[in-house]
Design a protein that fits this description.
The structure is a homodimer of 188-residue chains. Chain A is α/β, with parallel strands linked by helices and 188 residues long. Chain A is built from eight helices and eight strands.
Amino acid sequence: MGSVYVALLHHPVLGPEGQVVTSSVTSLDMHDLARAGRTYGVAGTFVVHPSPPQRLFVRRVLEHFLKGQGRELNPQRGETLEQVQVAADLDAAVEAVEAREGRRPLLAATSAREVPGAVGYGVLRERIGREQAPILLLFGTSWGLAPEVFERSDIRLAPLRGARDEGFNHLPVRSAAAVVLDRLLGAP
Amino acid sequence: MGSVYVALLHHPVLGPEGQVVTSSVTSLDMHDLARAGRTYGVAGTFVVHPSPPQRLFVRRVLEHFLKGQGRELNPQRGETLEQVQVAADLDAAVEAVEAREGRRPLLAATSAREVPGAVGYGVLRERIGREQAPILLLFGTSWGLAPEVFERSDIRLAPLRGARDEGFNHLPVRSAAAVVLDRLLGAP
């Protein structure tokens, strides 16, 4: 069974008009992703941002809970955030997984929109079970991952939808990530 | 098929030492719950709080997005929050559902811990499909719903767990609610 990693990309992602943008870090996302990641046995979570001050902000929040006053006040939060790493771009996250696992991860891109060649969750869940290579699940902030991320991904996941689908699918990325992890790694 | 409603309780919930407490409103929770609720076709979401100033705060945030400047800047957010209502306690939420549906809702309590007599998600999903009565899904903030809420509930849901369960299950309630809605109302 391959290890599963998560990367939250703030660039390249889409803005409301479909242009490629860079979004700001949301400190809450890293907590929620880490809590979901730990619940579902994720091996590591990357916060990916091209801006050094934004990465520094993430590191400062992490340090507060890993080593600072937050560790004393809320030790469980620190333990949970141990899996979070910072990366300047997707390549850096891929390299970090490869350095740890000794194998290049397969990239699995998620989207709230229909994408050509998308696979269902059962297919990827089964593949994770038999795959030796690690899997890096990619989530986009803002209006989702830019097309270039899909083009370089090995797997594209179908969008999450309700059975009573009314055409609205705009889950927060932190919620979507928890649902995707549950579908791929949840106990029935 | 019965309509599904969600209630987020801030009282009676448990504190870290197992005492019954009242937690503070988190404005983000109402946004995330409403977005998940709309994605999965929930008929209404209740923010339940016994304190009038806390309920007023929720109403002010709602008004900003429903009628105020937020409606102009982000109309989709206003549309999404239309499903959110405020209630002073669980009884008030139950009465609001009954007034709208003409039937008393069945109460389904969620927990991150094992509870006696819990049913699986497939069982409740199937029951929602054949049930005429509305279902009110109950989520607790802080360390989860107090025992008295379980005692009066018709259904108790098993805790969410990862297949690679390592004994950690502390999803944020906003993430847990999205996962539960996906399990009960998601398209496969």
